[in-house]
TrEMBL record:
Reactions accelerated catalytically: 4 hydroquinone + O2 = 4 benzosemiquinone + 2 H2O
Species per Swiss-Prot/TrEMBL record: Salvia divinorum (Maria pastora)
Primary subcellular site in the record, as a coarse category: secreted
Cofactor: Cu cation
Protein name: Laccase
EC number(s) from the headed UniProt entry: 1.10.3.2
Encoding gene per record: LAC3
Length: 541
């Protein structure tokens, strides 16, 4: 195993998109940021130097951080942010993970531009569970705003209304041919006729699930979130923010140029969304000189839940991943997830529907981050009053979650509540969408763990009916899972990683509104044993 050393300088960088130049926050002046490539078993040491004028942290999305919770990165959860002029070094090891992950800022909405691929190859001389592709192409899907992302965030927070939607989607930082002033820079990938390439697709978009496809080419899905799956062929991939999907593509079409394209899968009724399409070009070597346009694929309609469900329901993991599916459950949790509204006095700060501000919650608790320390530090240093451990294991009120619900029944309370999981216990969580404002998809991400997705469905979860349908044989292993519109998802994992671990909706506007909670896992009475001690350069608040 190797140790890889990197330096990330977080800085303001002028970038031109959609005919306009403005400063965005980048790592080392690159957008998207540098791709890190390692092997399973390697260690990473990344020194982050903050040369920007905003606080920042970096999260290694999907890395389990066994015994290294201080390197996880979410601000005020495992560390205080790195202030302008300061630096912090993240040190961690890749343990039993292979595939595509990514890294991103975990501080306000900076991850809109501060992100990059984290590619984990198998150990030396260990093959992929499929024919080795000739080339590997990272495809980072993103969202672009025509103005400073912090001002977009501030406006949403100030007004209490939904945020402005993005001005473009991007592939590897470029909007592509269909947007103004973007043609010359459209991302282009070259393939040789007959060869098979691996696309490592990452959805780095801030607030939007996406459909992705390539004209005329079938995609064979082989991996998700750094775990292999049983290969299956599809025309379209649906991918939520935070998720990654590895697909094989064989260049078996007439020599020429083909668009790959992505656009929104948007499930919230009557909500505004960016309805544009980003493209990149797949070009066969020795294509005839550009005379005709590349072939454009058809994408599902923005609200095509059938296509999304048909795709995700095909995911099964490879037998090698399944030796740990918990069957006996020790912690049986039921969490509602959804948007809510809080009443407010009419005015500029009360711009949600009918004199409200948007809020979001899990089990009716709208998560509030501490401001003076991080949760993990508060735990380690026994600082009282920072958090409580009374996060409810089941909803405080039970009703028809997907039906018409009166608002008064469901006004979220603000709180910094953790749920204490017994170390080593088998955990099951039912994640149930609600219908306070609208039903809509929520891509839920759990830090410090990956989990088996044993069941998914629409309507209210009903244990008597649904338990019997769980897949305990070959459920997919993921770190981010979609809770479908008006439906539910059930996940299972073993609580074998001590630390404080955030679980949240990976749609950043929902996270800001409080759609989050945290788990506390200690492996000794009142402490975490054999966990790396707080690093000396841990940033102060
Ligand atoms: Cu990819 Cu908490 O984030």
């Amino acid at each position: 195993a190797e140790t890889h050393y990197h330096q990330f300088v977080v800085q303001a960088t002028p970038v031109k998109r959609l005919c306009r130049t403005h400063n965005i926050i980048t790592v080392n002046g690159l957008f998207p940021g540098p791709a890190l490539e390692v092997r399973n078993g390697d260690a990473l040491v990344v020194k982050v130097i903050n040369s920007a004028r905003y606080n920042v942290t970096i999260h290694w999305h999907g890395i389990r951080q066994m015994r290294t919770p201080w390197a996880d990165g979410p601000e005020y959860v495992t560390q205080c942010p790195i202030q302008p002029g300061a630096s912090y070094t993240y040190r961690f090891t890749i343990e039993n993970q292979e595939g595509t992950l990514w890294w991103h800022a975990h501080s306000r909405w900076l991850r809109a531009t501060v992100y990059g691929a984290l590619i984990i190859h198998p150990k030396l001389n260990v093959p992929y569970p499929f024919q080795k592709p000739v080339t590997e192409i990272p495809i980072l899907l993103g969202e672009w705003w025509d103005r400073d992302i912090i001002s977009v965030q501030r406006q949403a927070i100030f007004t209490g209304a939904a945020p402005n939607v993005s001005d473009a989607y991007t592939i590897n930082g470029q909007p592509g041919d269909l947007y103004r002033c973007s043609r010359k820079e459209t991302a282009k990938f070259y393939v040789k006729s007959g060869e098979t390439v691996l696309l490592r697709i990452i959805n780095a978009a801030l607030n939007q699930q996406l459909f992705f496809t390539v004209a005329n080419h079938m995609l064979t899905v082989v991996g998700n979130d750094a775990a292999y799956n049983r290969p299956f062929a599809t025309r379209v991939v649906m991918i939520g923010p935070g998720q990654t999907t590895n697909v094989l593509l064989t260049a078996n079409q007439i020599v020429g140029r083909y668009y790959m394209a992505a656009r929104a899968y948007a499930t919230a009724q009557n909500a505004a969304f960016d309805n544009t399409t980003t493209t990149a070009i797949l070009e066969y070597y020795s294509s005839p000189p550009l005379s005709t346009k590349p072939l454009m694929p058809t994408l599902p309609r923005f609200n095509d839940t059938n296509s999304a469900t048909a795709y995700t329901s095909q995911l099964r993991s490879l037998p090698s991943n399944n030796n740990k599916v918990p069957t006996q459950i020790h912690e049986n949790l039921f969490f509602t997830v959804g948007l809510g509204l809080v009443n407010c006095t009419p005015g500029p700060r009360c711009q949600g529907p009918n004199n409200t501000r948007f809020a979001a919650s899990m089990n009716n608790v709208s998560f509030v981050l501490p401001r003076t320390t991080s949760l993990l530090q508060a735990y380690y240093q026994n600082i009282p009053g920072v958090f409580t451990t009374d996060f409810p294991p089941v909803p405080p009120i039970a009703f028809d979650y997907t039906g018409n619900v009166s608002r008064g029944l469901w006004q979220p309370h603000r709180g910094t509540k953790l749920y204490k999981l017994k170390y080593g216990s088998n955990v099951q969580i039912v994640l149930q969408d609600t219908a306070i404002v609208s039903t809509e998809d929520h891509p839920l991400h759990l830090h410090g763990y990956h989990f088996y997705v044993v069941g998914q469905g629409f309507g209210n979860f009903n244990p008597r009916r649904d338990n019997a349908r769980f897949n305990l044989v070959d459920p997919p292993l993921r770190n981010t899972i979609n809770v479908p519109v008006g439906g539910w998802t059930v996940i299972r994992f073993v609580a074998d990683n001590p630390g404080v671990w955030l679980m949240h909706c990976h749609i950043d506007s929902h996270l800001r509104w409080g759609l989050a909670m945290s788990f506390l896992v200690e492996n000794g009475p009142g402490k975490m044993q054999s966990v790396q001690p707080p690093p000396p350069d841990l940033p102060p608040c």
